[in-house]
Every structure is written in structure tokens, then in C-alpha cells.
Amino acid sequence: MVIRTMANPRIAPRTLPDGVYRSRRIQTRRRLRVTDTLVALCWTSVSLAVALWLSYGGVGQVTDLASAITAAGIVAGLMGTDLVLLMLVLAARIPAVDRAVGQNVAIAFHRRLGKPALYLLLGHGVLLTIGYALADGSTVVAETVALFNGPDMALAYAGLGLLVTVVVSSLVAVRRRYSYETWHLIHLLSYVAVLVAVPHQLSASGMLAEGTWQGVYWIGLYVLAFGSIALFRFVLPVVRSVRHDIRVAGIERIAPGVVSLHLRGKHLDRLNVAGGQYAIWRFWTPTTWWHAHPISFSAMPTDTSARITVRELGSGSASISQVRPGTRVWLEGPYGVFTHAYRAAPQMAVVAAGIGITPIRALLEHSVLQPGEATVLLRASDPGESYLWPELAALPSMAGNRLYAMIGARPPGLATWMSAADLARGVTIMSVFPDLLNSDLFVCGPQSWTDLVVRDARQAGLPSEQIHVERFDW
Amino acid sequence: MRARTVALSILSSVAVLAIGWELGTQVQPPGAAPLATSAPSTASGPDASSPASPGAIAPSPAGVSGTFTGASVATRFGNVQVKVTVTNGAITDVTALHLTDRDPRSRSISNRAAPVLRREVLAAQSADVQGVSGATYTSDGYLSSLQSALDRAGL
């Protein structure tokens, strides 16, 4: 069933002032350049690690097979350590990185580096043991035993073991079997793994030597990695949370399994939240203080109030919906690139399903839209999932813009984001959004459903800069 | 990832690696620079025919005999110090007083390298020999200490 509300859709959209569209294109291009630079910096950093070793005469040490294998082991260790430190930087939630690419992309990159880093470091250990054994004329086993005798080397082996544990626990197959908090606790061991390897880097290699460019680089990278984490994941959130003194003002149940938490605080406008952003929330009660949740702002915060809407999907979110008014709340953020500031096109196409409506409602509240600029499609499997729909329809930005509703279950066995009824009627993404290729597409909803919408959009030829997705799955 | 991102990353990485390689092929082997020579320790054994004062004119090399201890050279892996025995201006023995001993591996490397260096020095009758591969720090320290001993002997 397709419901048309609002004005007659045959009104031709008023074109945007040229200035707005031009500045959007400039901003998009600038952001893409920043992204390119950040990625290039990551790869250059790995090359720099090797280049510095080369510049200190690394290749000159290769004179026979044993020294060649040893050199390969050294290079593997340098590259692996560089990748691990980069992974720490990516996980540090640096605001500049979030503004450029969004935390989701940063964390996705972090995940991709995990296995290569581990393989390189394992290769480091194996190749060096073989190289030393060949040079000394002893066996690999004897060499391993000899290596263990130095106190620093035993620590280095321990660090490698911890790293293996961390990576194995993060494999999808293993991670699925434990709660998020258990996995996170194991993951924190990665800090220990990195620090415990530093003594052997000081004593057995020249990479941290003072007065060398190599030393400057590595010390700088360590400071960047641990400093960023300390600042952006600990100091800044604590300072902000204390300054804004956020507390739960009230709980409103808006649908079965869905609650809106009304929050009060001080100077919340200084958070500079943009519509569509989220924060990572921690509620200080005995049952909820040890887990933090990414939850979108479902309305634009005022100076003293804010609202988030949560769906009770697991034990964590269920316990959040039961906190009492007056509970102290800490936040980290706001983060997110799902906002009007990241638009690249004149028109706007919006698709939301279920709880995915939360950032979209805030996004539309914050956007200043011309009549005919936006087309919004709200999706639900059954009428019980249509919370916040009337609120969204009543937003001032929605005046003169199209709002569709699509209610109904998906056809069983078919990979589609649409309801069975609409699919049968021949509805496609292009028929809902005729102007799709000229639009920014904002999608938010369950993971697999969102992927199907994006797939359809890409197949229709929509470029990546115009596709904006908000994910809640990390 | 976009094609442009990949291209930029590859270009920048290759450039950095190339610069590193170039710098590496011009630089001295790592042994030369980082060694610091500590103050010479007292000479042991009789200094029969050469005066004890540092600035003394060396007597003719043909007649020198005695044992001369070289300076203790500090390396990353421990100190290296050797003693040279000279008979009538010819090097007849080199004894290692102290070799790199920072950890078991350093000890094993030095113990392997020292006899090789001794043999080479005796054959060349000077400190102008190639270092032992895989024992760069030991070799440089050994030969530096040896040279300072030879200087003391006037050779």
C-alpha cells in the first residue's frame, strides 16, 4: 500500500540556489581528498617503516641466505608493528577522522588490518628464528630455546601470544558465541600485547634508538596511538560528561519494545550535535555502568534537553529502558556523518525501517528543505513498527515533500527490501525515487535490509558519494 | 576503494621506499658511527721499550716488543677490549679481554667471531681486516680496540 500524504507530488521541485549546490560539490570533493590523504598516509606509514630501515643500511646487512632471512624477518616485524599502531589510531575515535570518513569506515578499516598485522608479526618471529639458526649453525628448536632465555624476548613471545588471542577472539565465528562485553575485555589485551613487546624493540633492535630518524618516527607513532586513545576515548568524554551533567529526565514507552529516553543537561547546544548523529552512552546504574551503547539522537537537542530512542533488542538495551529518572548519563561523541552537512546532490531520497527512523527524524528536523526536494519512504513489517511516523510527518521540513509508507512483510525466500505486496505491484527503487540519480540517498534500518537497499541503489547507478548509510552493528 | 586513492597510496609508498633505498646505499655500515671509545684503561704487562707518556715519539717499529692493551670500546651489546702481544715489531698474539656479553646471543656471536678475527689479524699483521659477517658490532669493537693497542705500541 502506498500512501501519499502532503502536497500534490506533481509540483515541480524548486531548484536550489546555485550557491548551495556548488558549495556542496566543493565540500564533497574536499572531503574525498581528505579521505584519500588519510588512506595514503596509512600506506605510506608502513612504507616509511621499511624505508627508514633501508636508509640505515638495512640492505647492506644482507650477505647470504641466513642474513637475507633475518632481514626479511626484521622487515616483517617493522611492517606488522606499524599496522598494529595504525589499528590503535583507527580505534581511537579521533574526531577529525570521524568528520572525514565516519567511525564506521574507520573501524571497518581497523578490522581489515587485523589479520595482515598478525601474519606479519608471526612471520617476524618465524623468519628471525630460522635466520639466526642458519647463522649460528644450530637447529630452530635450539634457537627458540636460546631466544627464550633473554627476559625481553620472553615478553615479546607473550605479546605475540596475546595478539593471537585477540585476533582469534575477533573472528566472526568465535565472536558470535560471546557477549559484546566479554569480547571487548579480551580485545583490551591488545594494549598489553603492544606494550609488552616494547622492551625487546628497545634492546634487540635499533628502531627506537635516540638521535635517529627511525627512533623519531617510531616514538612519534607510539605517542600518536596511545595519546589519541587516552585523549579521545578517556579524557575528553569524561570532561564533557561532567561538564554537561546529563541525567535521565523521563522514560516514554512509544511502542512495544521501544522507549524514548528524555535527557536533561547543561549547555547541550555546545555539543554541536547535527541531526542524524549519535553518541555512545553510558548509564550509571549498577546493572548498566559497564556497557556503553551507540544510540542516535532522535530529536535535535536544545540547550537543556535531548532525546534518544532505543529498541530493546538485547539484554543491554533492555536494561537501559529500565533506568530510573535522575540516573547520571555519560556520553562520548557526538559522532556520525549521516547529516545534512555531508550532502552532495540537489535532491534527497530517504528510506527508513523500524528503529532506523531515529537518526532520520533528527536529520529531517535539522535540514532546511525546499518543497519537493525530498522524498521519504518509511518501511515497517507491521503497523506496530510505525512509531515516530506521525512526528516525522509533522516536521516543518516535510512541508511540500513526499512521504510514502510501505507496510508489510518481505516475500519469503527473496532477497529484497520491499514488502511482498509492493514487489508484486512492480515497485522499484526508481519508481519510488524517480530522481534518485540526482539525490542523496539516506538509508537506516536493520543491517541486511539496508544492504539490499544500497545494492538496488548501486545497481541503478548511484555513486558512493551520494549514498549515506547509518549502521548500528558495531 | 577508489582508484585515485589506490594510485595515490602506491605512488607515495614507492617514493618513500625509493628514497630510503637511496639513502641506504650511501650510508656507512652501522658499525662505524655509534661506537663510543671510553677512556683507555691502564696498560698491563711490561712496556719494555716504549715510554709510558701518551705523546712520546714511537721508537722504530722493528724493535717493539711487549703486550699492549687497547681501549675498551662500548657497543650496544657490551664492551669489547683486546690485548695485543708484539714481538720485534710483529703481532704474535691477540687476546680478547672482554667481548660483547649483553645477552646469551651476543656472547655466542662474539665467541664465534673472536677466533676468526684473531686469525685474520695475525695473517694481515694489522687491524685492516674484514669484519666477520653476522658479528658487525663485535668485529668493529675488536678491531677498534686492537688499533688503539697497536697505536700504543707504535705499530
Describe the structure.
The complex is a heterodimer of chains A (474) and B (155). Chain A is of the alpha/beta class. Chain A is 50% helix and 15% strand. In chain A, strand 1 and strand 2 (258-264) form a beta hairpin. The two termini of chain A are 33 Å apart. In chain A, the strands form two sheets. Chain A has a six-stranded antiparallel beta sheet. The longest helix of chain A is centred in the first third of the chain and has 38 residues, at 18-55. In chain B, 41% of the residues lie in helices and 18% in strands. Chain B has helices spanning 3-26, 104-124, 136-153; strands at 36-37, 66-69, 73-75, 78-87, 90-98. In chain B, strands 1, 2, 3, 4 and 5 form a five-stranded antiparallel beta sheet that branches. In chain B, helix 2 (104-124) packs across helix 3 (136-153). The interface between A and B is medium-sized, with 37 and 33 residues.
Percent strand of chain B equals 15-25%
- What is the structural class of chain B? alpha+beta
Strand content bin of chain A: 15-25%
Largest sheet of chain B: 5 strands, antiparallel
Unreliable residue stretches of chain A? 4-14
Shape of chain B: elongated
Provide key terms for this protein.
heterodimer, A: 474 residues, alpha/beta, 6-stranded antiparallel beta sheet, 11 strands, elongated, B: 155 residues, 5-stranded antiparallel beta sheet
Per-chain topology:
The complex is a heterodimer of chains A (474) and B (155).
Chain A: H1 18-55, H2 65-91, H3 95-101, H4 103-136, H5 140-148, H6 151-170, H7 172-175, H8 180-196, H9 198-204, H10 213-244, E1 246-255, E2 258-264, E3 278-283, E4 293-296, E5 305-311, H11 315-320, E6 328-335, E7 347-353, H12 357-366, E8 374-380, H13 389-393, E9 402-407, H14 420-424, H15 429-432, E10 439-444, H16 447-459, E11 467-470
Parallel strand pairs in A: 7-8, 7-10, 8-9, 10-11
Antiparallel strand pairs in A: 1-2, 1-6, 2-5, 3-4, 3-6
Chain B: H1 3-26, E1 36-37, E2 66-69, E3 73-75, E4 78-87, E5 90-98, H2 104-124, H3 136-153
Antiparallel strand pairs in B: 1-3, 2-4, 3-4, 4-5
